[in-house]
Amino acid sequence: MLWHLLLLLILLDMTNRRRDPTIMISWFLILFTLPYLGVVLYLLIGRRKIAMTPFKVDFSNTSIKSLPHLSSIETVLNKNGIPKATKGNRFHLIFNGNEAYHSLLVAIEQAQHSIYLATYIFDNDAVTQALSKALIKKSKQGVDVRILIDSIGSFKLYLWSRSLQPLYDAGVKVAFFMPLRPFGYNTHVNLRLHRKIYLFDKQTVFSGGMNLSQTYLSPHENAPHRWDDLLFCIQGPAVAYYCDVFISDWNFTVDNKNEVLPLLLNKPLSLGEERIQVVPSGPDIDSDALYDALLNAIYSAKERVWIVSPYFIPNSSLMEALRIANQKGIDVKLITPKLSDNLLLDIARSSYMHEIHDWGGEVALYHKKMLHAKAFLIDHSSVMVGTLNFDNRSFFLNYEIVSIGYSPTMIHDVETWMQQLLNNSYKGMRPVGRVRKILENIGRIIAPQI
User: Fold this and answer.
1) Residues 6+ apart with CB under 8 A from 358
2) What domains can you pick out in the chain, each with its CATH number?
């Protein structure tokens, strides 16, 4: 009787949330063929939007009236409650893990008041040990140091956190996002913190694809096993939004009425010329604002749509938009690693890549190293960089954050970097055999659930 009641409540929950029909059909099949397992799975991973708590900022309530000079991307985001772009920002791209490592160490050393770090992966290796040593020193000097780590992305550290004891002893506050407490409060196994926010004195922020690990960062210039990735540094008014997102995530995770971090009331001063819009996405945002804006950008493109992503598993709407863009004569390019770190995802993405190649779009397979960077270039009018992969998980499940730039210098810098990637890439897709094609098509069926 209880299972029947739970099943009924789940069916009502799905229909109330207006889920994508394909996803709903998948869940209906699971629930009616394996009802007991289906109920458990839905309770653990079935929901992708969660209710706000008193300690979490509701970004859907930050809407600003649309202005006539806004681009179509800004207009879509604004209508979804995302604050408009800010002027007066300084933006710097970091192309390799060696520069990123030293930049973070310098930022830690120069911090006077606060250091807030949010990451998907925090490994226990030589890089994080060096960073931890610097953080311990600053904490002992009275700097407020906080580290927010995803409990699945850093699962080993979550289970065996002994290496964090020196940080605890020095007064560093460490919290694990969405801890694994089955059916407990604030526990959604499928919803992960994929944001990277490295914030110093609420004035300088680093973000991008790089986690805190020697896979991404290194004190050595030519570390053989380090991936190629992208980090960027922002100073100026846009930093305030990164700060508020971190504080929101921290308060949500810690959930302590006696220690609620206040939001940043005053934006940092203007320090540059870049116009940047900060866009969080994920279960804490009522709409799918970032997805809607990207889909609109592809349809609105006049010259080019260039995509850099390690994982490429788009849904049918995005593939249709890319196909139509290609038919209009728009330069559609996908830059992705020849081999990623995940064989299943490589098989799942291949079908989509072959389809783009068959349309006449360009698929560039980066062959130097594993490429983990994420960026989207639309015409000569906008560029998006951040933590967002081109897949369903990033679009609809993970907590992500990106910066969209609308200034010529920022667009030019990203374009130059993309050209360097193209110069180190194989062009096109080779024909595959029947067995491989069957595997790719099977991968395409299960891809939306990966």
Assistant:
1) none
2) 2-46 (no CATH), 86-272 (3.30.870.10), 289-449 (3.30.870.10)
